[in-house]
Amino acid sequence: MRIEKIRYELTKPVITSKAQVSSRVGWAVVMDEGEFTGCGEILPLEGWSSVTIEEAYSQLVSYKHSEIAMSELSNEVQSAINLAIWNLEASKNDETLLEHLGGGSDCVKVNALLDGSSQRNLRSGLESYRLSGLSVFKVKLGFRDDQERLQLLSEIVQEDERIRLDPNGSWSLQYAVTFLDRARKLLGDRLEYVEDPVANFEDLKKLRSIVPVPIAADELCNSINDLKAFISENLGEYIVIKPSLIGGIDQTLEISSYAEENNIQTVISSTYDGPIALQGWCAVAANVAPEVTHGLGTADLFSDAQMRKMVPKAGKVYFNLTSD
For the whole model, what pTM was predicted? Predict the structure, then answer.
């Protein structure tokens, strides 16, 4: 196993209620077996990750030298290794990753990501994405002017377009109730769902009993046990899975399968991943939820040439079907 330093620059910082993201730095994991190769990557993300870049490297080195078991690694390091293994096995079988997963389309529908930089950028960004063929917009919230942003969205979003609101669990229960009651009235059917409106299941259960809006769980639901609790309490309709944060493809397949069995829709999402992981998650999304609009349209945020082939076209990402 080889460990290589990687870095990808964003065209401009992405602003969320958690952090400002301007570059992605981490490690590529390369596994060779004769003439066959498989790659994965880990790019720790401040505000989301459980490990630093240095800790990730230390874990990778320990795993390489058989000093630590896979189960003892952080979820993100496991994800990088797991993706490399899947890509290696696909290569050995002369298959693309998508074929190795069981097949699917070579493209996925994606939403546009509108960050929290300003109301002006919210308007211009939405209009720009609309011109490029995108019609589902994920809007970062959790800012002092959330109410004004909501009013703006109600004025500029068209009836055949859909909005996904994402405050990253930053709202109090009281604020979430007030805000979402207004959002439901202003946006109507244009509001597809709200992602992690509050920070815990207890508040989410109370919110659901007061305001009838569709809910998606992201950071609230990072394991099968979390999903079981989410389903048993009837806390939402969608689960957002970030493979990079939960252990990779194996864990994603397990969670998405259980969700499907219980009529919960799976949305696969990027953590501003680089080209290795983004391509992998597109393949997973095309296999497990081909009709859903996913959060994988982030390639246009990067200045890296490798990402250009995955920039959304007419609302879809056409990913490069190679096994490495």
Answer: 0.94
Segments in the chain below pLDDT 70: 320-324
Give the containing element (helix H, strand E) for 215: strand 215-217
Q: What is the pLDDT of residues 8-32, one digit of tens each?
A: 999 988 888 787 899 999 999 999 9
The alpha carbon of 270 is separated from its chain's Cα centroid by a whole number of angstroms, namely 3
In order of their start, the domains of the chain are: 2-95 (3.30.390.10), 107-318 (3.20.20.120)
Residue among 308, 312, 318, 270 nearest 134 (CA): 312
Report how far apart, in Å, the C-alpha atoms of 21 and of each of 92, 199, 317 are.
36, 22, 22
Helices 119-131 and 146-156: crossing angle, nearest 10°? 30
Distance CA 180, CA 258 (A): 28
Task: Kindly give, in sequence order, each residue whose CB lies less than 8 Å from that of residue 271, ignoring residues fewer than 6 positions away.
Answer: 43, 45, 48, 242, 244, 245
pLDDT of residue 31: 98
Backbone angles phi, psi at 156, to 5 degrees: -110, -15
User: CB within 8 A of 35, min separation 6: which ones?
Assistant: none
**Token match 């997963």: residue?**
101
Q: What is d(CA 10, CA 76) in angstroms, rounded to the nearest whole number?
A: 21
Residue 226: alpha-carbon gap to chain centroid = 17
